[in-house]
Amino acid sequence: MRVVLGGVRGSSPRTHPDFMQFGGATSCVLVEEQGTCAVLDAGTGLRAFAGELGVLRSTPPLLLFTHYHLDHVIGLPSFAPLYDPGWSAVLAAPDREGVSVETAVERLTAAPFWPVTFRARIRFERLPDECPEPPCRHGALEVRWCAVRHRNGCHAYRLDAAEAGGASMALVTDLEWTASSALEQAALLYLLRHPRPVDLLLIEGYDAAAHPDAFGHSAWRETLGLARAAGARRVVVTHHAPEDTDRSLTRREAEVQNVFPGARFGRDGMIFSWRGASESPEPV
After folding, report:
1. Are 57 and 35 in contact, with CB atoms under 8 Å apart?
2. Bridge partners, 145 (sequence order)
3. For residue 58, what pLDDT band results from cuts at 50, 70 and 90?
């Protein structure tokens, strides 16, 4: 499995030099397994994948959305492959507060907010509210998900290589962990633990001292405690606050590693590649 972080910033992008070491693009993750590509979220980091995703494949790319807040979808309207009539993709998500993925994308690209129409062959897929068992299959990937607590609805996703003993990854962002019910917490822990503890967990983690009013999000001590309880093999903190400079993130990464050895902070362009249970997901 190959996982590439296209964007690791939350809420809004940054372009100032003080933010370049960790990156200023908003949420987007590429997952590739034996020629099958999936993308989690479509923030401004999506543009980094235009060349790779624009290649025609026997299995079209799958775009999954954790939710529809603008920082997670704003890269979609200007994504070049969507204007290629020979290109195809599947855009999928469960309904959130009665809004389907098709309706959300139509609203995002409707006048007066966007002036042109997609020309690619897009198939919208409404995922069930509850992840089925066996899980959904897309090419060489198995797709699992569960709802997490966040305003306007949000989902965490887990992708596993379909072959036995294959690699696995999960993205958990915009999570209100302490406000979650016992059932919501149990569902997320189950997602991260089954069919076995996830190899690579990308999870948000704000600095509670610097952002005491980070509405709709969780502090790193909460989310990394969750990661430890889930038994995740590698943890990467993502969705950095737009105010967090390279200096503040470097300082906090060192603080986090004192408490959770092996944890890393995500950076735009960071790549992980591994084969499954026999290997550890190390950055390359």
Report:
1. yes
2. 157
3. confident
Instruction: Over range 189-203, report the average pLDDT.
Output: 97
Domains within the chain, CATH numbers bracketed? 2-273 (3.60.15.10)
The identity of residue 10, as a single letter, is G
Give the model's pLDDT for residue 274: 95
Identity of residue 111 = A
Q: Cα(37)–Cα(30) distance, rounded to whole angstroms?
A: 7
Query: Virtual CA dihedral for 155, 53, 232, 251, nearest 10 degrees?
Result: -90
C-beta separation of 50 from 81 below 8 A: yes
When computed from its CA atoms, the radius of gyration of the chain, rounded to whole angstroms, is 18
Which of 52, 284, 282 is closest to 167 using CA atoms?
282
Task: Give the integer Cα–Cα distance in Å for 91 and 106.
Answer: 12
Q: Dihedral (C-alpha) 47, 33, 166, 135: value to the nearest 10 degrees?
A: 80
Contacts of 180 (CB under 8 A, 6+ apart): 148, 149, 188
Report d(CA 224, CA 17) in Å as an integer: 29
- Indicate whether this model's pTM tops 0.85: yes
Q: Are 1 and 276 a contacting pair, CB within 8 Å?
A: yes
Mean pLDDT of 215-244: 94
Show Cβ contacts of residue 97 under 8 Å, excluding neighbours closer than 6 positions. 152, 153
Q: What is the mean pLDDT of residues 32-59?
A: 94
Q: What does the block give as tokens for 118?
A: 């997609």
Question: What average pLDDT does the segment 208-220 reach?
Answer: 77
**What is the per-residue pLDDT across 159-173, written as a single tens digit (0 to 9) for each?**
999 988 899 999 999
- DSSP E strands in the chain: the ranges are 2-7, 28-33, 36-40, 62-64, 88-94, 121-127, 136-138, 141-148, 154-161, 168-172, 200-204, 234-238, 264-265, 271-273
**Nearest-5° Cα angle at 61, 217 to 25:** 40
Tokens of 130: 């509850």
* Contact predicate 234/227, CB 8 Å: no
